[in-house]
Design brief:
- It is built from eight helices and no strands.
- The protein is mostly helical and about 200 residues long.
- It has a domain of about 130 residues.
- Helix 4 crosses helix 7.
- The radius of gyration is 21 Å and the shape is globular.
- The relative contact order is 0.14.
């Protein structure tokens, strides 16, 4: 049985997604059960939660499959910010979130949550372009013979990573998007299909 710290590590880092499909579903279910009752302390206030929800829904909108809101992406992000991120990472995320509102105010004279979907899409497109530019710059930095690898500093990269991890480690994301199948507890390979006693054999 994993403890809370192990469950957080699996989900926050996306490590669970590297497991074989047959093992992944069981591990995700166990990790989510361990984290089913998060600590009372929260990082995001009401406005920040609304911003995170709106941004995540733009990235993963509801279609024929559940969207970010349906699987509780905002609650997941708040949990990771509160219980897994260190103070530096948490501050960088919150500062980045505030910059989204500042950019929105400069462009449209309103906070991100007050913008139309088209305006929100424009803002995220700009953030995505900036993320790619910084990623290219960081890749150049890594290729320098004297440079050590640095952690990614871009807020939107952090946000997308958390959003996608939250989604694909959820029950709906794992089953409806990754198409994981429920694995039976055992397999009776030699049982005849018409043998009424076959299901009782070990």
């Amino acid at each position: 049985m994993m403890n809370r710290r192990e469950a957080l590590q699996l989900l926050a880092t996306g490590a669970a997604l590297q497991l074989a499909p047959g093992r992944l579903r069981a591990v995700l279910r166990e990790a989510r059960a361990v984290l089913a009752t998060p600590a009372a302390a929260r990082t995001l206030n009401a406005h920040q939660s609304a911003s995170v929800t709106a941004m995540a829904e733009m990235i993963l909108p509801k279609t024929e499959t559940p969207g970010a809101t349906d699987v509780g992406v905002c609650d997941f992000i708040d949990l990771i910010l509160t219980e897994w991120y260190d103070e530096e990472e948490r501050s960088r995320f919150l500062e980045g979130l505030a910059e989204v509102d500042a950019r929105s105010q400069a462009l449209f004279a309103k906070d991100f949550v007050g913008c139309s979907p088209a305006q929100q899409a424009d803002i995220l497109a700009v953030l995505g372009e900036k993320m790619i530019e910084e990623e290219h710059a960081q890749e150049h930095f890594r290729r320098s013979a004297s440079s050590a690898k640095r952690p990614h500093q871009n807020f939107y990269f952090m946000f997308r990573q958390l959003t996608l991890t939250a989604y694909y480690t959820s029950e709906a994301g794992a089953t409806q998007e990754l198409h994981l199948q429920i694995i039976p507890d055992r397999h009776d390979g030699c049982v005849e299909a018409d043998d009424p006693k076959g299901a009782q054999r070990q």
